[in-house]
Amino acid sequence: MKLYYSPGACSLAVHIMLEELGEPYQTEMVSTGNGSTRTDKHLTVNPKGQVPVLDLGNEVLTEVSAIMLYLTFTFGANLDLDTSPNTLVRAVEWMNWLSSGVHAGPVTQCWNTDRLTEDPSHHSSIQAKGRKRLRDVYNLIERKIPKTGYVLGGFSAVDPCLVGYFRWGNRLGLDMRTDFPNWTRHCLQMLERPAVNTVLAEEKLSVWE
Ligand SMILES: N[C@@H](CCC(=O)N[C@@H](CS)C(=O)NCC(=O)O)C(=O)O
Predict the structure, then answer these.
(1) CATH of 2-79, one of 3.90.660.10, 3.40.50.2300, 3.40.30.10, 3.30.240.20
(2) Average pLDDT in the 159-179 region?
(3) Residues 119-167 pLDDT 10s
(4) What is the DSSP string of 86-130?
(5) Ligand 1 pocket at CB < 6 A
(6) What is the 52 CA–ligand 1 centroid distance (Å)?
(7) Structure confidence at residue 77 (pLDDT)
(8) Where in the chain is the domain with CATH 1.20.1050.10?
């Protein structure tokens, strides 16, 4: 397996999951920051011009939620992951919400404002609204994170996703440690996992900045 990732992007969740599962994999970095997700070379791999991409050799998978479910089904036994229908349905519920309601919503408003309007004079109001929406959805996430343990009980595909969104919250100006105690507790629990630290070191990231 080969993961195409950009440091700190939504591909972080897949990177963590691959490291957790302990199956052999390679990585190739394509930075969203320098436009290398939009080169002809990367567009051949993923015509959407995005990460994550998981190259399985005979086919290519895109979309965080699809890749995370593929890894859960295929290698979940390595970690004794729960693959019962109820847990998988809840995982889809979480990951779709993160991808559409958070990433494509307020995060895009704040970081990819130019994709939402041709008129730069609209940027600041779109970003201000994005920051407000971000706080609203982060408050909802905070309320859904339990006071102990992982999000769906046992460790699941959802937990690595929440590490990246936690980091994004800090980068988007939210005070995650003060205002989101359940999420901070969950993130600290994730930081106790060696795989999470390995990947953060490889991508040269801190969840706090
Ligand atoms: N819905 C996709 C979103 C993928 C996505 O937006 N990836 C971003 C990085 S977080 C990206 O590659 N952006 C580069 C671009 O769109 O040019 C998923 O869940 O995988």
Answers:
(1) 3.40.30.10
(2) 98
(3) 999 999 999 999 999 999 999 999 999 999 999 999 999 999 999 999 9
(4) HHHHHHHHHHHIIIIIIIIIIIHHHH-GGGT-S-GGGHHHHHHHH
(5) 6, 9-10, 32, 37-38, 49-52, 63-64, 99
(6) 7
(7) 96
(8) 85-193
Domain 85-193 has CATH 2.60.40.10: no
Q: Ligand 1, atom 20: nearest CA belongs to which residue?
A: 63
Question: Are the C-beta atoms of 23 and 75 separated by less than 8 Å?
Answer: yes
Of all protein residues, the one whose alpha carbon is nearest to atom 15 of ligand 1 is: 50
Cα dist from 208 to 99, 105, 179, whole Å: 21, 22, 14
pTM of the model: 0.97
